[in-house]
Amino acid sequence: MRTFSSFLGRKVETESGRGFGRCRDLRATIEPGNAVVEGLVVGRRGLLEHFGVGGPAEHRRDVVPWAAVVRIQGDRIIVRDGTEVQ
Hints:
The chain has one domain: Roll (SH3 type barrels).
């Protein structure tokens, strides 16, 4: 099991090494008794969103879909090649 805080600050990059910046937050849907992670909020604008500056709709391009995550390796979160931030 991983904690929310264990994702913060990790580099997010594709399998071939293209970087998206660091994970600044997670986006999730809260369901009864459960939280479902939908994406990783990345980059500078993601950091601003984490601190409440701006709104989520303004920063959709800074979210990497959770379904694209391939593995977590050391201080990096590796996502599928071809992944685009939303």
